[in-house]
Amino acid sequence: MIGKPAEDRKLFRLSRDEMERRWALVRSYLIERSVDALVTQTTRDFHGGYTKWLTDIPSANPRTVIFHASDWMSVIDHGPMGKRRVLDGSDHDHPGVGELLTTAAVPSVHFTQTTDAQVCVDVLRARGYKRVALVGQSNAPYGFVQHLLAALDGRVEFIDATDPVDRMKAIKSEEEIAILRTTAELQDEVFQSVVQHAKPGMRDVEVTALARHTAERAGSEQSLFLASSAPMGKPALFATRHFQGRVIQPGDQMLLLVENNGVGGYYTEMVRTLVFGKASQELRDHFEVVKEAQRETLRRLVPGASCSEIGIANDKFMTDRGHQPEPRLFGHGQGYDIVERPILRFDETMLVEPNMNFAVHPAYGTNSVYVTVCDNFVIGLNGTTERLHKTPQILFEV
């Protein structure tokens, strides 16, 4: 934010060149397939990457983007019903937008769920579109998708463009990678602040509040800090703020997930364990195993590799050492979404490509211990990986 005008209300702005790069990818896809427009809706910041990627604005409320193949975007946002603001694609706060429409859909009020869909229907009908691509329709509210499809049944052919757009988002530009580095650097600073100030007598929530305060002062817009403390010999598991009321005791351990976005809204993710005394040998031994599992994944995480096969290989690595196979997912892409494709799991169809950003976090748990390690890695053109976080991969005895 150095050099940012004092009166600018936006925390961070992507370059126009970066936005034009994205629009060119989408427009080329639409034109090649004779598609008139692309429609996507997102409803929350953590997983609102589609509309953020197209407009450089997050989704605090339902936000719908109609990306026209031969015109500036139409954006439907929360606001006064029936309002329309005409733009020309060059607005400072709404780059690439030709019209901004508002309506008052409220996610918690079920009968309002068709209102933004109807505005979208009106735009598509007025332009006489016959072929429209949907992106992330499985993630959008049922009421929005159902009304859109029913209202245009027989008039519009819908195709699914989720997979190709997911790939566009997953392959990061040099500008995006530079921003991801700053997010990882911020998370290193957040964790260092926790190491310096966390101590017995604090509640778990006080530790995460310290982390959140450090992150948000530096410009982070959204954050997820999962943490819990436990006596040595019992597992310290990830816990949301609702379950962060325990008071830390001398000799305890604390598992801390730092998963905030940085300026620009890009996510990275880091996990480390703090010990308020001395770590047990059991914790040390299993920590070495998960670090080895991460290294083994990085050996496989090269351009052209199958994300599905990497997920299967991690399960074999863990079971060969007497550990459990991964029951959820142990690695995934990140960008505007806190979890973004590709994921490292048996059911992923995407391949690893250069300039993808992965969080890798193999884990192991029993009734007496839970341990994991997480860092972000960017895939290089020559098959090398860059670890974005600089925090040492150690158990922090404080």
Topology:
Blueprint (H helix, E strand, L loop, with lengths): L15 H17 L4 E6 L6 H7 L7 E6 L4 E6 L4 E4 L10 E7 L11 H12 L4 E5 L6 H10 L5 E4 L1 H9 L3 H24 L6 H14 L5 E8 L22 E8 L9 E6 L5 H20 L6 H14 L10 E3 L6 E4 L13 E4 L2 E3 L4 E3 L2 E5 L5 E3 L8 E2 L1
Parallel strand pairs: 1-6, 3-5, 6-7, 10-18
Antiparallel strand pairs: 1-2, 2-3, 4-5, 8-9, 9-10, 11-12, 11-13, 13-16, 14-15, 16-17
What does the model show?
With 398 residues, the chain is α+β, with helices and mostly antiparallel strands. The protein folds into two domains: 16-170, 3-Layer(aba) Sandwich (Creatine Amidinohydrolase, Chain A, domain 1), CATH 3.40.350.10; 174-397, Creatine Amidinohydrolase. Helices cover 32% and strands 22% of the residues. It contains nine helices and 18 strands. A seven-stranded mixed beta sheet has the order 4-5-3-2-1-6-7, sandwiched between helices. Strand 14 (363-365) and strand 15 form a beta hairpin. The model has no long low-confidence stretch (mean pLDDT 94).
List keywords for this structure.
single chain; 398 residues; alpha+beta; Creatine Amidinohydrolase, Chain A, domain 1; Creatine Amidinohydrolase; 2 domains; 7-stranded mixed beta sheet; 5-stranded antiparallel beta sheet; 18 strands; globular
Give the strand order of the largest sheet, numbering strands 1, 2, ... along the chain: 4-5-3-2-1-6-7
CATH hierarchy class name of the largest domain? Alpha Beta
Using the CA coordinates, give the radius of gyration.
23 Å
* Secondary structural class: alpha+beta
CATH topology of the largest domain: Creatine Amidinohydrolase
- The shape, in one word, is globular
Largest sheet report: 7 strands, mixed
Order of H and E elements: HEHEEEEHEHEHHHEEEHHEEEEEEEE
